[in-house]
Amino acid sequence: MRCPFCHNDDTQVLDTRVSDEGDTIRRRRRCSKCDKRFTTYERVELVLPAIVKKNGSRVDYSHDKLASSIKLALRKRPVSSDSVDESIGRIEEKLLSLGEKEIPSERVGELVMRELKRLDKVAYIRFASVYRSFADIESFESALKELK
Description:
The chain is of the alpha+beta class. The strands form two sheets. It has a three-stranded antiparallel sheet with strand order 1-2-3, with no helix packed on it. Helix 1 crosses helix 2, helix 3 runs antiparallel to helix 4 and helix 4 packs across helix 5. The chain is elongated, with a radius of gyration of 22 Å.
């Protein structure tokens, strides 16, 4: 680890601690050249797959975009933030477990719809109406029958 003060490559680890959550390691270090101390943190960096859109273009996965889409569907609905966060976590875990470098946007949309169906039926219909591009009343009726 390079010293942030003098940029020396030779530093010594004085203390190592695991965070309470167990997902981060904190290391206290000392530079052998300037003798200054500093702290570094290590955490796992998970790489989620790229999203392949319907037109064939590829974009990086965005946690914020997923969260905003779900929150938009749930707007003014009685669903807790914790439930939303848990749903987003399940979607991301599923994406990671697939082990793919790329995934079609349709697959992500289906995962979102599955989670919304569990959270709130109205939010599910809202999302489905945009995602599946409902063009008429019959499309809404078939989605409602699917819920029943």
